[in-house]
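Have a think about this chain, C-alpha cells included, and walk me through the fold.
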Amino acid sequence: MSISAVTDAVNYFNRNDINRDGSIDSRDSVSAEAITTYDLNQDGRINLVEYTLTDCQGLIDCSINFILATNLSALISSNTSTEQKNTAIEILASIGVTAIEPLIALLTNPEESIRSLAVNALVKIGPSVIEPLVVFMNNCRWEDDDPAYLYYNAAVYVISNLGESATDPLIELLHNSDPAIRGLAGDYLFGENTEKALTAFIDVLMTDNDQSVRSTMIDNIWGVTEYSDNESIIDRAMTTLIEGLGDPDPEIRAYAAFKLGLAEDERAIGPLAELLSDTDACARKAARKAIERIVGATNFSEYYSPCPLY
C-alpha cells in the first residue's frame, strides 16, 4: 500500500466514531476481509505487535490511528530494516496528531537517522506538536555523559521550524530549569533574527546563572552585530556585549572583550580600557588585544582569544 493510500485510509477512519482505547463503535467500518485475515478483538482492538510492517500497512484499512501509531513506534524501535523503519515513520507522519506522542518518543531513539526522521515527521504535523514537546523537555533532564542533549536539540529544532508559532514557546523555554534547554532555545531564537526573539534571549539569558549559557549568548549576541540589518537591535547587542565586561565570571568578561574586538566598534574602547585593570590576567589581556584590534593595530589573522575556555 502506498503512503497516499495509507493517508486516504486514515482520513476515512477519522470520519468514523472510533474511541481512543481502540474500540470501534460502528463495527460496519471494519471490512469482512480484515476480520477474517487479522486477529481482531471483540471490542474492536487489533493485535499489531506480532505483525511485520507490511501487515501493519494492510491493517490500516481496519484499524484506528491510536493503536496503529503505538505499534508502529514499537516496530521502529525493534530490529527491523532501515527501509521498514523509514516507511513506518512516513506512515506515522500521515496519521497526524494521534502520532505525536509516539513520534516524540522516537526522539530518544539511539539511532540518529530515526531521530532525524521523527523530527521531519513532527514538523510535517505542524504547531499541534509544540505543547507535547514542551512537556517532553520539562520532564527530561540532562546528566553528565547522557545523550539527552541530543534529544533536547531535536525537540527544540522541531519547534523552531514551525514558523511564527514557534517564537512564544521558545521564549517560554528560556525559563526552563535545565540550562541545556535554555541555551538551545536561545540559539534558535537568535536564528529567527526578529526583534521580539532577539530581545527575549538578550534580556533573559545574559543574566542566566549558568556560565555555559551566558558564554553561548555572548557568541550569539556578537552574531547579531555581524548579521542583523536592524540598527536598534545592533545597538542593543553592542550594549549587551559591553555589559558582559562586568560579568562576575572572568572568562565571560574576557570573551565579551574578545567579541567586542571582532565587532570593531569604537564605542567599546572606553569600557575595554576599564577592563585593563581587571583582577584577572586573561581578562586584561583580552581587553588589550580588543582595543588594538578596534584601532587597527592588529590584523585579523593575528587576533585570537587568549582564554582557555575559548
